[in-house]
Amino acid sequence: MGLSLADQRIIESMIGSTFGRLTVIKRAPNYKAGATRWVCKCSCGKEIITYGSNLRTGKTKSCGCLAIDTRKKTPYKHGMANSRLYNIWHGIKNRCELESSTGYRLYGARGIHICEEWKSEFTNFYDWAISHGYTESLELDRIDNDKGYSPDNCRWVTHKENCNNRRNSKNRLTGRMMSDSNGKARKRPREVRTPVGQHDKTSQPYYKGEPEEWQA
Fold it and tell me: Global pTM?
Protein backbone atom coordinates (compact mmCIF):
# COMPACT_ATOMS: atom_id res chain seq x y z
CA MET A 1 0.00 0.00 0.00
CA GLY A 2 1.41 3.36 -1.01
CA LEU A 3 1.53 6.50 1.06
CA SER A 4 -1.50 8.69 1.23
CA LEU A 5 -1.38 12.17 -0.23
CA ALA A 6 -1.35 13.60 3.30
CA ASP A 7 1.65 11.44 4.29
CA GLN A 8 3.51 12.48 1.15
CA ARG A 9 2.97 16.13 1.97
CA ILE A 10 4.22 15.61 5.53
CA ILE A 11 7.38 13.96 4.24
CA GLU A 12 7.96 16.71 1.70
CA SER A 13 7.52 19.40 4.34
CA MET A 14 9.83 17.69 6.85
CA ILE A 15 12.78 16.73 4.65
CA GLY A 16 15.31 19.54 4.69
CA SER A 17 13.72 21.21 7.70
CA THR A 18 16.02 22.22 10.56
CA PHE A 19 15.24 21.83 14.25
CA GLY A 20 17.99 23.21 16.46
CA ARG A 21 21.17 21.55 15.22
CA LEU A 22 19.29 18.80 13.40
CA THR A 23 18.35 18.69 9.72
CA VAL A 24 15.81 16.09 8.57
CA ILE A 25 17.25 13.81 5.86
CA LYS A 26 14.56 11.19 5.35
CA ARG A 27 11.80 9.27 7.04
CA ALA A 28 12.79 6.29 9.20
CA PRO A 29 10.79 3.07 9.67
CA ASN A 30 8.08 3.43 12.29
CA TYR A 31 7.83 1.37 15.44
CA LYS A 32 4.78 -0.83 15.88
CA ALA A 33 3.02 1.99 17.72
CA GLY A 34 3.00 3.90 14.45
CA ALA A 35 4.71 7.10 15.63
CA THR A 36 6.60 8.79 12.81
CA ARG A 37 10.39 8.80 13.08
CA TRP A 38 12.99 10.71 11.10
CA VAL A 39 16.64 10.33 10.21
CA CYS A 40 18.37 13.60 11.06
CA LYS A 41 21.90 14.88 10.57
CA CYS A 42 23.38 16.99 13.35
CA SER A 43 25.54 20.03 12.60
CA CYS A 44 28.45 18.11 14.15
CA GLY A 45 28.07 15.45 11.44
CA LYS A 46 26.45 12.66 13.43
CA GLU A 47 23.17 11.07 12.29
CA ILE A 48 20.38 10.07 14.66
CA ILE A 49 16.80 8.80 14.48
CA THR A 50 14.16 10.59 16.51
CA TYR A 51 10.41 11.09 16.66
CA GLY A 52 8.78 13.92 14.76
CA SER A 53 6.99 15.04 17.92
CA ASN A 54 10.35 15.48 19.68
CA LEU A 55 11.58 17.69 16.85
CA ARG A 56 8.47 19.84 16.73
CA THR A 57 8.31 20.39 20.50
CA GLY A 58 12.03 21.10 20.82
CA LYS A 59 12.66 18.10 23.06
CA THR A 60 15.39 16.92 20.71
CA LYS A 61 17.66 19.66 19.33
CA SER A 62 20.88 17.77 18.61
CA CYS A 63 22.56 14.39 18.74
CA GLY A 64 23.56 15.20 22.31
CA CYS A 65 26.45 17.54 21.51
CA LEU A 66 24.42 20.63 22.47
CA ALA A 67 24.13 19.46 26.08
CA ILE A 68 27.86 18.72 26.20
CA ASP A 69 28.75 22.17 24.85
CA THR A 70 26.37 23.82 27.31
CA ARG A 71 27.95 22.00 30.26
CA LYS A 72 31.41 23.16 29.15
CA LYS A 73 30.26 26.79 29.24
CA THR A 74 28.39 26.53 32.54
CA PRO A 75 30.61 25.59 35.52
CA TYR A 76 27.64 24.96 37.79
CA LYS A 77 26.64 22.03 35.57
CA HIS A 78 29.94 20.20 35.47
CA GLY A 79 31.03 20.47 39.09
CA MET A 80 33.57 23.28 38.78
CA ALA A 81 31.56 25.79 40.81
CA ASN A 82 33.03 24.29 43.98
CA SER A 83 36.58 24.12 42.66
CA ARG A 84 39.44 26.26 43.96
CA LEU A 85 39.95 27.88 40.55
CA TYR A 86 36.30 28.89 40.33
CA ASN A 87 36.46 30.46 43.79
CA ILE A 88 39.59 32.40 42.82
CA TRP A 89 37.87 33.68 39.67
CA HIS A 90 34.69 34.53 41.57
CA GLY A 91 36.65 36.45 44.19
CA ILE A 92 38.49 38.45 41.52
CA LYS A 93 35.23 39.44 39.85
CA ASN A 94 33.68 40.48 43.16
CA ARG A 95 36.44 42.74 44.41
CA CYS A 96 37.03 44.27 40.98
CA GLU A 97 33.43 44.79 39.85
CA LEU A 98 31.07 44.56 42.84
CA GLU A 99 30.92 47.83 44.78
CA SER A 100 29.36 46.13 47.82
CA SER A 101 32.34 43.77 48.08
CA THR A 102 34.64 44.22 51.09
CA GLY A 103 37.69 44.43 48.85
CA TYR A 104 36.24 46.73 46.20
CA ARG A 105 37.76 49.92 47.64
CA LEU A 106 41.22 48.35 47.34
CA TYR A 107 40.70 46.98 43.84
CA GLY A 108 37.82 48.20 41.68
CA ALA A 109 37.80 51.65 43.25
CA ARG A 110 41.53 51.95 42.54
CA GLY A 111 41.07 51.03 38.89
CA ILE A 112 42.09 47.40 39.32
CA HIS A 113 39.79 45.43 37.02
CA ILE A 114 39.49 42.00 35.46
CA CYS A 115 39.98 41.78 31.69
CA GLU A 116 36.90 41.21 29.52
CA GLU A 117 38.16 37.80 28.38
CA TRP A 118 38.22 36.43 31.91
CA LYS A 119 35.18 38.34 33.15
CA SER A 120 32.92 37.01 30.40
CA GLU A 121 33.65 33.30 30.90
CA PHE A 122 35.11 31.29 33.77
CA THR A 123 36.33 28.73 31.23
CA ASN A 124 38.63 31.34 29.69
CA PHE A 125 40.29 31.90 33.06
CA TYR A 126 40.37 28.14 33.68
CA ASP A 127 42.05 27.41 30.33
CA TRP A 128 44.68 30.09 30.97
CA ALA A 129 45.37 28.77 34.47
CA ILE A 130 45.83 25.16 33.36
CA SER A 131 48.03 26.10 30.41
CA HIS A 132 50.23 28.29 32.63
CA GLY A 133 51.21 25.72 35.22
CA TYR A 134 48.41 25.96 37.80
CA THR A 135 48.53 23.44 40.65
CA GLU A 136 46.69 23.34 43.96
CA SER A 137 49.85 24.45 45.78
CA LEU A 138 50.35 27.67 43.77
CA GLU A 139 48.83 31.12 44.28
CA LEU A 140 47.79 33.80 41.81
CA ASP A 141 50.06 36.85 41.69
CA ARG A 142 49.80 40.10 39.75
CA ILE A 143 53.17 41.08 38.29
CA ASP A 144 52.36 44.80 38.41
CA ASN A 145 50.15 45.59 41.41
CA ASP A 146 48.93 48.81 39.80
CA LYS A 147 47.45 46.86 36.89
CA GLY A 148 44.48 44.52 36.77
CA TYR A 149 43.88 40.83 36.24
CA SER A 150 44.77 39.69 32.72
CA PRO A 151 46.87 36.96 31.08
CA ASP A 152 49.84 39.29 30.59
CA ASN A 153 49.86 40.54 34.20
CA CYS A 154 49.22 37.36 36.17
CA ARG A 155 51.28 34.31 37.06
CA TRP A 156 51.22 31.36 39.44
CA VAL A 157 53.76 31.46 42.26
CA THR A 158 54.50 29.62 45.49
CA HIS A 159 53.18 30.91 48.80
CA LYS A 160 56.69 32.03 49.79
CA GLU A 161 57.14 33.96 46.53
CA ASN A 162 53.74 35.56 46.97
CA CYS A 163 54.61 36.68 50.51
CA ASN A 164 57.89 38.16 49.29
CA ASN A 165 56.12 39.98 46.47
CA ARG A 166 53.63 41.47 48.93
CA ARG A 167 56.37 42.64 51.25
CA ASN A 168 58.24 44.21 48.34
CA SER A 169 55.20 46.02 47.01
CA LYS A 170 54.43 49.46 48.42
CA ASN A 171 50.74 48.80 47.87
CA ARG A 172 50.85 45.76 50.16
CA LEU A 173 52.71 47.27 53.12
CA THR A 174 50.77 47.66 56.34
CA GLY A 175 51.40 49.76 59.41
CA ARG A 176 54.32 51.67 57.81
CA MET A 177 54.81 55.42 58.11
CA MET A 178 54.21 57.58 55.06
CA SER A 179 53.79 61.29 54.32
CA ASP A 180 50.53 62.91 53.30
CA SER A 181 50.15 65.75 50.83
CA ASN A 182 51.13 68.23 53.56
CA GLY A 183 54.30 66.36 54.42
CA LYS A 184 52.96 65.10 57.75
CA ALA A 185 53.80 61.58 58.79
CA ARG A 186 50.90 59.17 59.12
CA LYS A 187 50.37 55.44 59.06
CA ARG A 188 49.63 53.73 55.79
CA PRO A 189 46.12 52.24 55.89
CA ARG A 190 46.00 48.51 56.34
CA GLU A 191 44.97 46.58 53.28
CA VAL A 192 42.36 43.94 53.90
CA ARG A 193 43.07 40.62 52.22
CA THR A 194 40.57 37.81 52.09
CA PRO A 195 41.36 34.12 51.64
CA VAL A 196 40.70 32.53 48.26
CA GLY A 197 37.69 30.28 48.33
CA GLN A 198 35.63 32.61 50.49
CA HIS A 199 33.23 34.85 48.62
CA ASP A 200 33.31 38.53 49.45
CA LYS A 201 30.66 39.66 51.91
CA THR A 202 30.15 43.03 53.51
CA SER A 203 30.13 41.31 56.89
CA GLN A 204 33.39 39.46 56.23
CA PRO A 205 35.73 39.70 59.25
CA TYR A 206 39.31 40.97 59.23
CA TYR A 207 42.00 38.31 59.50
CA LYS A 208 45.08 38.74 61.64
CA GLY A 209 46.95 35.69 60.40
CA GLU A 210 47.66 34.37 56.94
CA PRO A 211 45.53 31.42 55.83
CA GLU A 212 46.49 28.96 53.13
CA GLU A 213 46.24 31.50 50.34
CA TRP A 214 45.51 35.19 50.02
CA GLN A 215 44.00 36.78 46.98
CA ALA A 216 46.47 38.56 44.71
Answer: 0.48
